[in-house]
Every structure is written in structure tokens, then in C-alpha cells.
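Support case: user asked for a sample of complex input and structure output to validate their parser. Sending the pair below.
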Amino acid sequence: MTKSEVNNHYDVIVIGGGITGAGTARDCAMRGLKVLLVERFDYSTGATGRNHGLMHSGARYAVTDHESAKECIRENMTLRKIARHCVEETDGLFITLPEDDLGFQATFVQKCTEAGIRAEVIDPKQAIALEPSVNPDLIGAVRVPDASIDPFRLTMANVLDAQLHGAEALVYHEVIDILIEQGRVIGVKLRNNHNGEERTVYAQVTINAAGIWGSLIAQMAGVKINMFPAKGSLLIFGHRVNHMVINRCRKPANADILVPDDAVCVIGTTSVRVPIETCDDLRVTPEEVEELLAEGMKLAPSLGSTRILRGYAGVRPLVASDDDPSGRSISRGIVTLDHETRDGLAGFLTITGGKMMTYRLMAEEVTDLACKKLGVTKACETADKPLPGSEPQTPPNRKYSFSQRASYGRHGTLDWAVNRGDNTNDALVCECEGVSVGEVKYAIEKLHVYNLINLRRRTRVGMGTCQGELCACRAAGVMCDREQGAQKSIDDLAGFMNERWKGMQPVAWGDTLAEAQLTATIYQGLLGIDTMTKERRKEYYEI
Amino acid sequence: MANETQVQSLSANNFEQCLKCSICTVYCPVSAVTPSYPGPKQAGPDGERYRLKNKEFFNEALKLCLNCKRCEVACPSNVHIGDIIQAARIKYSTHSPSLRDRMLANTDFVGTMASPFAPIANPVLKLKPVKAILHGVMAIDKHRTFPDYSRVKFESWFKKHAQASQDQYAKHVSYFHGCYANYNYPKLGQDLVKVLNAVGYGVHLLEKEKCCGVALIANGMPNQARRQGEVNMRSMRKAIAQGHPIVTTSSTCTFTMRDEYEHLLGIDNHDVRDSISLATRFLYQLIERGEIQLAFRDDYHKRVAYHSACHMERMGWVPFSTRLLRMIPGVDFVMLDSQCCGISGTYGFKKENYERSQAIGSTLFQNIAEENPDCVATDCETCKWQIEMSTGVPVENPISIIADALDVEETKKLNC
């Protein structure tokens, strides 16, 4: 074999840069395997980046799904240890409103206790004192160890740790074919989505961790997985209305969870079956906005007078049980498929179902299986070793500025690698979220940033009140200085602003509409960006 | 529809109505000279979002805010930026006020103590060694001189010389004189009595008057400010019940009692607020309604440059004072560009703020020097100290200028 061929051979290829894929790559790498992680776009573009950011205690599933509840509380406690910098220990309330059955509370508490979830019935008055935003009409409240978690950070930390353990990771590399030889998957064909170049990589085991798109990957390999994409829409509010997670104490329904995330809060979700073809471009409908708001106001009435920043939607990768091809019996539990025993196709595993909460457990299960096939016996260590950023070190004793504190919150101990202390690096790119030039540079260098949307996922640039109005052009300027040319930056900037508008459009009234109008005036009227993109210039010169 | 559910977006001090246009930062006098200050937008609405997440995001740099409220004047979205910053300081600051801050803030107490000893205190406070001690030990800047204390308080003068004659008038007002007129410059109060008596109004003291509390708020003593505010509101309610409007001569006291009481101290002043008026506004409105007339001396000639105090801008009351001054035939009126003088009450007295304070005011001082007026007029006493110290040009309250220019006998005839 030539050298380049050696470099094309891995023990394991993991397909999918969501939290499951990132966690699996980490686990495999920690067991000493040679790992390649491939993602067709950016990390956490699918369901990972489009959920509540809720670290379930498991209470939500306690009554309907004992197994999931047990998994949740176990992982909940684990993530507090290993992903300290991604978690905010807020606790949660399950409230009973006058229209709900207070009798459900006793069953709920009993089932929580059975699953090992601390569930403490508290007086409604005490609940209001703990969480002043809660609907004051509540007639019952239970306190549980829910928390808030940042999925973007969590995914990135897993990727970074995988890399520290020798894994390679390729973003913007899409699997366009699965290579099969003599009933065995031997590798995949990749296309670089930036430049169209194709290449082939080989591995003894290929793990399909592509979420809802996993059914398409399976299709490429000639096997069938019954998946049912369920769209869930959410709304982000301009600031934190609540400091604890607020849930309804009843059987899970639409729009009954309000989560404080970073400087915002998020209400969700709806649940609608959608065709898989639509999963790459989901839209939040007016009916969904209305339902989210109406139900959300029952949890915290002040949502009715709080600015909504944007709406977004994700897809749950629901999997039908294998023995029920109709899809009626759907599990939210973890589904690990060994296609050798299931379909007679060796070297191919699928990990799906589950929840962001249980990603580590999912990774452990599928890695155990891969190790068994590869004859590796090293035990899983992912539950004990902290992720990069969450090492148990105390921060250096120094005075924190607003942006330093915000950055430390985002990157944990990794923040120490951000350059500070001079006017250039300390200048703010994003004022709403306190992102400095130094932090942007750090993200570009270390966190796989190729465009502004990547940068947003790593740093929160453009996620604040102004939704990119002030920061996007500054960030584009820093990006342009670092590597890419002006035209690419302009196109990137135009794309970023359109992506921001996509989320604002469903809630474009009041302050959000005024904000969007000011943004449009700056970017179109003042900067003329819509006439400067590559496509528009081409049109112009052709005329 | 959902957008009909959300008819109104509400947030504390409208912080969420901020569209991030940053106009406030452009108008911030501190940002202009102190690049390390986060600026009103960052310290105000931006910071508030994060402080709501975690109080650790509070930054002591917020104390650099002058509370001039020029950001609020500039804001097109009616965000109470200055209030957000002051409220955050009240709510989150963990620093307790130093002895210096307590002394500067307790204008009432210090004034009461100093007045009887005015003949000694005034020259002593001007001595270089005393200033050096104040500078070194108390961190009160050596360039500053405390305004002279008057030996006789305005209240004492009023009770002795004026009170008895006030009942003869048909109409009446109650006068909130404030600390400056009482302890330092009784002439201002005397001038007001002169003008109001001339137009047929009797002047009365409030049953009980306390310092408005502006310096207490600025120096981190909101509880004491609230107690004093409640006393003032009680006294004013009584005066209003007797049919007396409340008249003042200090723009900052007025602004504090009308707006800051409610926004920062949570004092319910809704029934009192509209009855509190600066004397120039009170007079101008009476003239406009044709209820009174002023007559001025022929031999009065002065080139007067008007400086818009920050809180006058915030209240939108500058035109009342300037139009009144322009009515005086002998006044050669000059309008100075509206900008902060940099003193901001006790702020500029602090050693750590002196240079910033002077840098903020420098273009104003230059503007005054170029115009070369006989005196500068302004409605704020601390602006007066700053401008007099920095330019050498005497500064008068518009009421004093009117009192000087007034033909008392002629005015009395016009209004009898």
C-alpha cells in the first residue's frame, strides 16, 4: 500500500457531526481506535442544534417511558460532571394548572422516584418565590433536577476530545456512496461540499450516526430503516423570563416546556410528521407560532409581552420498531442496529433514536459493538473523563470584563487560549453576547470555522437581540482578514443575514420587525450588500 | 393571531425595546473621553440581559456613568438607558459607600454642620494644605473647591425677613429650595421670592424639606434617599392640598423628584409629579397664558450665554428658561451647544474622576471662552461650580438674572 492509501484507512468511520456522531467519535478514539468523523455540513446542524437545550432530568418520561427516564437521570448526573461548562444547573418545575388533573402529580412523583429522579412536591407559593415568572394560578408544583445545556458547545467539546485522542474530523464532507465488497461495507466515497472534490476512505467498521438522514445513508448501503421525521418548532425570547425550567405536570404535550438558555429562553415544541425531503429546509408556520405562544403563556404569562427573537424547527429522528414496519409503535429509546445480524451486511452499524440527553450512552453502546467486532477490549471511559473545557481547574484569579465572563461561560477552561489584553483583541464583535475579536480569532483557528454560521454556533455571534445587525459585518471583517477573500466574505455575509431573517420572519412584528427593518436599511440601503454578491455581480456585468 | 396576542412588548425600563442602533453611545459624554467605559448601550440594555442571567455580569465600571441621561434623550425607542444603569448599580453593586462618598452625598447633614461655621469653614476649605489632605486622605480632588457655605441659611433668612409678608398675596406657591439655595447661596431663594412676589405670588416653605437625594442615589445609598423622598412627597402633598403648586430652582432636584423617585427608588409620586415645576417653566407658562407680565429695567445690559444642563435636556425644559431670558431687552443672548459640563454633582469632586470630568467639559469651556459672555446662565448649581472653576466666567441661575433685570415696581403695577 502507498502512503496515501494508508492514510485513507481507518478502524472506524463515523458518519454524522451531530452530538451522537461526535460522542461516538470521542468514545472510539478513547478506546484507541483510528477514527474518521465525517459531516456533510457543519457540526450540530441537524436535530442537535435545533432543540430546547434542555438537560432532562427524565421526569418528563417517568410516567410513559420508565427506561428513558432512568437513562436520562443517569446521563443528567454524568453530564454535570463531564460537561460542566455546557451545563447550567437551573433545576426545573413541573406545574399543575387549574385545568390539569392534580391527581396526576402523585403518580408523577411516584414514577420519578422509581426511576431515581429526585422529585420534591413544593407549595405553589414557594414555587412562585423560587420562580417569579411562573403562572401564578398554579395549583401544584414539583421540583426536579432539570437543567439547561448548550448543544453546540457539547458537540464541539466531544469533537475536540476525539481529536485530542487522535481522531480526524472532516466537516463539509458528504457521504455520496457506501462501498460494499463481498457483503461487507469497506468504506465510503466522500464529496467535499466546498470544492466538489471526491475521495474514498476505508474502514473496518462504518457507523451511521446521521440522525434522521441516517435512513438515507442506510438506503445507500441497501438496507432499510423505518424512520418517521417529526418536526418540532420552538420560539426564542429576547431575554430570560425564567431561571428554572418550567414544565407542565401532565402527559407530554405540545409547547409545554420553557427553558432558560444563556441570555434567552426557549418555548417548545410542536410535533408534526413531515416528509424526509423537507428536513433540510424546515419552516415555522403561523399556526405553530400561535400555539407555542398560547401554551407558553400558560407556563409564564409574561411571554405574551416579551420580544420574540426568532423561531426555528428541528426533526426528531423517530425510529419504528423493527418488528413493526407500519411505524405505529415508535420508540424514543436508543436503537442500535448491527446490520450484519439484521441484514447480512457486515462492517456497518447504525446508532439512532434516543435523545441528545442520552448521546453518551448511545455512543457507548455502538462503540462497544464496534470494539467487539474489532476485537478491542478497552472499557468505556467517557462517563468519567471530563470534556475539554470542563477540566476541574479553577480559573486564574483575575478581574473579569463582561465579554471575558461571557467567553468563559462559553468555552470553560478553553477560554484561557483566547488572546486578550490589547485593544484589538478586546474589541467587541458581537455586543449583545459579548464576543471579542480575540474569541472570534480563537474560534477560526481552533474550532473548525469556515463561515459566519459556523462562527455563530461556536461563539453566539449574531444570536443576541440584534440578530446580526451590528456584529455580522464586523465578524465578516475578521474572517476576511484571517483567511478568505473579500468576495467570499460578502457572499458569506449575505447568506448569514438571510439565514437570520429566515428565523425572524415567522415572528416579525413589534420590536423584532423594527429590528429587521433597521438591519435591512443598514445592509441593503447603506452597504448595498444585495448588489455585491457574486451572483448579482455576474448578472450586472452580463447586462 | 399571535402578533395580536403580543400587542405590547414590555420590559423593565424598556430595555428590550433597544434596537441596538447605538445612537446613545454616540451621545455619551463618558464614552467620548473614556474608551474603556462600556458605553450606555453595553452597560444598559445589553448588560441587562446578561445580568438577568447571572448577577455576576454586573461590572463596577458602571459607576463611571454620569447619570446625565443624554443617552435617553438620544434614544429613538424610549429606552430608559440611564435608569437601567443606575438601577443595576443599586441592585447589584457590592461596594459599600466610602466615608468620602457618604460625606459628599449627605449634603443636608454637611450643610447643617458647616453653615454656623461658615466664616471659618469657607477659608479653611480653600487652604492648600487642607485641599492636599482632602485629596490624599478623602480622595476629593485638590482642584475642587467646595462652594462657600452661607452663614445664614435661606430658611432662616426667609422666616426672619419674608415669611410674615407672604400671606398678603392672592396666589401662592410652595418653594422647594434644595440644599444649594439653603446652605450655600440663599440669594437664589431671595431672588425667587422677589420675582414671584412682584407678579403677585406669595412664597411658602414646605412643612418639611429634605435633600432630594440625588447624591445619595449616585453614591449608593438608595434607602436613605427613599426615606428622604417619602418625607418630601408627604410635605408636597400637603402643600398641593392647600392649592400650592411646587416651585423649584434646581433642575437636578426637580428631575430627581419627578422621575428618579419612581424609576429608581420606587416612590409613588404620580399625584405630585405634575405639580412640581422649575420656576422658569412656571413663570413662562403664566406669561404665555396671559396671567402675568414682567417689566424690565432699561439700564440692564448683559451678554448671557445659556448652558443646557443635562437634566434640563432630559426634561425637555430648556426652551422655558431660554425664552424667558430672551424676553429681557437688555440681554444679548447666546445659546451654547448642548453638552455635558462634566461635573455631574459629586462625580467630578472625586479624585479618580477629575481628569475625565474636565475632559468631558473641555469643548464647552472652549465654546464659552469664544463667546466671551458677561455671565453664563444655567439651571443647575453643580454646572455653575464646574463652569466657574474651569472658565472663570460667573454663572447665574436664570431666576437671578431675571431678578436683577426686573423692574419691580413696574412689574407690580402690571400684575396688581
